[in-house]
Amino acid sequence: MKEIHHWIDGKEVKGTSGRFSDVYNPATGEVQARLSLITKAEMDDAIARAAKAQIAWGATNPQRRARVMMAFVGLINRDMDKLAEVLSSEHGKTFPDAKGDIQRGLEVIEFCIGAPHLLKGDFTDSAGPGIDMYSMRQPLGVVAGITPFNFPAMIPLWKMGPALSAGNAMILKPSERDPSVPLMLAKLLQEAGLPDGVLQVVNGDKESVDAILDSEVIQAVGFVGSTPIAQYIYERAAATGKRAQCFGGAKNHMIIMPDADLDQAADALVGAGFGAAGERCMAISVAVPVGDKTADALIEKLIPRIEKLKVGPWTAGNDIDYGPVVTKAAKENILRLIQTGVDQGAELVVDGRDFNLQGYEDGFFVGPHLFDRVTPDMDIYKTEIFGPVLSTVRAATYEDAIKLAMDHEYGNGTAIYTRDGDTARDFANRINIGMVGINVPIPVPLAYHTFGGWKKSGFGDLNQHGPDAFRFYTRTKTVTARWPSGIKEGGEFNFKAMD
């Protein structure tokens, strides 16, 4: 059985805990590897080594650090297919979706090549008599990233790119469900010229997370996962004086106005609702058609599209629409929630509960599901299902529709489909949600903007990637300098106002 280890000081290091986590092939249900879980002592040692390596890395000028990112971009492109194959085999994503996962992370690394510009401070000369003032952005030291299973390349890249470009060392703890791609990325960074020890990849469970949170050396932690854990990490990190940037769950609504192009809206809902088997924090899981006429027409267009979806393993070819969910437990939870929807009175228009893929009976495949006439009191509406399930909540008016999205506890992403610019503008201005799409179903910002949700989807003041990431991973130092020229003799005992 293959064993997966840690990446410490530029080499693979076998753990000594004797504790392991199974890594599955989601398509077959078989265990394909064992992952060594780190001990607290090993974690503390990795953090100490990172702190030692960070000193020289932080003193390296930003342009040289950016050159490492530039080389890293080339190496990711070189190994794109290899990375995608490993990602698909551990996560279950289709091959094109796996490449998309890597590509969206790669774009953040491309943005990080511009780090020297983003790290520039401000300067004011002659702020007072003979006085100059300037600010510097300096690295925090050692920071940590705790990343989820659903984007095993993209989110680690979102964390490590800005953190390392800003001169920090990073402790990366990826998901134990699909850990291989982060280790491969660490090796590529070494090949790109990153000094050993500046990036440590450690594998573990809650014990390792708590070791990160309790460390006095780690200055900041970035997390993506479920809301309860995001809130736990945010609160515990804050209690120990760390910066925290924690992103949680989602229940993303897409409002379909009567004037929308319903074919376009239906295509968007199918892609955004069922891509990656719904295991996306930016998946559209709630369709909100305005008016029964709109709803009836939309459902009529959705049914044949959803029934035609091809579900299968990534090895079956690029025309597969989505693959298995990540674990057996995830599959069981999705099916349990679907049953609660039926029990609570929702209309199951497309029923994928009997889905069975010949030759892959033990895989974690879930057929596509479409609910109609879902109401806000139902569990399938309140809960993030994280599976191939689309719920339709009918709204009588635009005001009713927007209220649904605004009243939900999650505020990650949302979208509206309309031909009316006034409605779209009103929606974008009023909605209390972090990322908004107008005739765009999954409004993930490009790398030079920032990604982040509101309400219980995000904890912390600064978002991921874009300029916010460099603000998060640096702190500002302001210097007031006065030189001898023109200084009068004698001390001054009052704080002198600027002339």
From TrEMBL:
Query: Which residues belong to the signal peptide in this entry?
Result: none
The record's Pfam families line, in alphabetical order, gives:
Aldedh (PF00171)
Q: Which UniProt keywords apply?
A: NAD, Oxidoreductase
Q: Name one GO molecular function term.
A: methylmalonate-semialdehyde dehydrogenase (acylating, NAD) activity
Q: Does the keyword Cytoplasm apply?
A: no
Q: GO:BP terms for this protein?
A: L-valine catabolic process; thymine catabolic process
Which Enzyme Commission number(s) are on file for it?
A: 1.2.1.27
All copies of domain Aldehyde dehydrogenase, residue ranges: 16-479
In Swiss-Prot or TrEMBL terms, this protein is called: methylmalonate-semialdehyde dehydrogenase (CoA acylating)
Q: Which organism is it from?
A: Paracoccus hibiscisoli
